[in-house]
Amino acid sequence: MEFDAFTGGVEPGGLNSREQIKILICFLMDQIKYDFTPENITNILTSQALANYFEITQSLAELEKNQNIVLQKGTCHLSPSGSAIAQRLVSNIPFTVRERALRAAEIEKVMAKRAKDNKITIQKDTDGGYFVHISMYDQEKEFFNLSIKVFDRDQAETIKSNFIQNPTDVYISNLKTLLHYNPEEKE
What is the pLDDT of residues 2-29, one digit of tens each? Predict the structure, then answer.
């Protein structure tokens, strides 16, 4: 396999061939049955320093051009030829790289689902500061809504990031506080 990929930002043991990157993308999509966006796939591979950002985007474009993946409504879908690539050529990818990528893909899948089920917007206030608006949905029905004003954009982004990490904790802690629920108190 030709080492033709730029490796800036790639840790030792990462991928240095565009062919390997394309195989790994097909493998991930074949193993993790989820409608990832190109951004999700890029996040998966860059979060583990397995491939260079620009090489990933180029590989995705080539896979789409060759109809190994199909982009529909902003999400990637593996074609039968892409699935065949994943199954036949996966042995060209080191086992540890595959395992790291699969773990990262599972995390990205959870985060993508949370982002889809929870709407978070940041709005600059005319009086200064920022509002963070959080809404949680269950089957497209809103069941939780919270707005909070913070001092600056960094605080707003921190709240957004922390909420996406674990929205259930935010919901439960608000319910406990508002309902004065303490399981250790005995009545």
Answer: 555 545 665 666 677 888 999 999 999 9
In a domain, 112, yes or no: yes
Contact between residue 130 and residue 149 where contact means Cβ atoms under 8 Å apart: yes
Q: Are strands 141-150 and 75-78 parallel, antiparallel or unpaired?
A: unpaired
Length of the chain measured in residues:
187
Characterize 104-136 residue by residue with b for buried, 16 or more Cβ atoms within 10 angstroms of its Cβ, and e for exposed: bbeebbeebebeeebebeeeeeeeeebebebeb
Is residue 1 within 8 A of residue 24, CB to CB? The reply is no
Q: Which of 51, 68, 146 is nearest to 104 (CA)?
A: 51
CA 23 to chain centre: 19
- Tokens 């993790």, located at residue: 32
Sign of torsion, CA 145 146 147 150? negative
Which pLDDT tens digit goes with each residue over 122-176? 999 999 999 999 999 887 889 999 999 999 999 999 999 889 888 888 888 888 8
34 and 84 assigned to the same domain: yes
What the block records as the tokens of 47 is 């979060």
Of 116, 135, 153, which residue constitutes the final position of a domain? 116
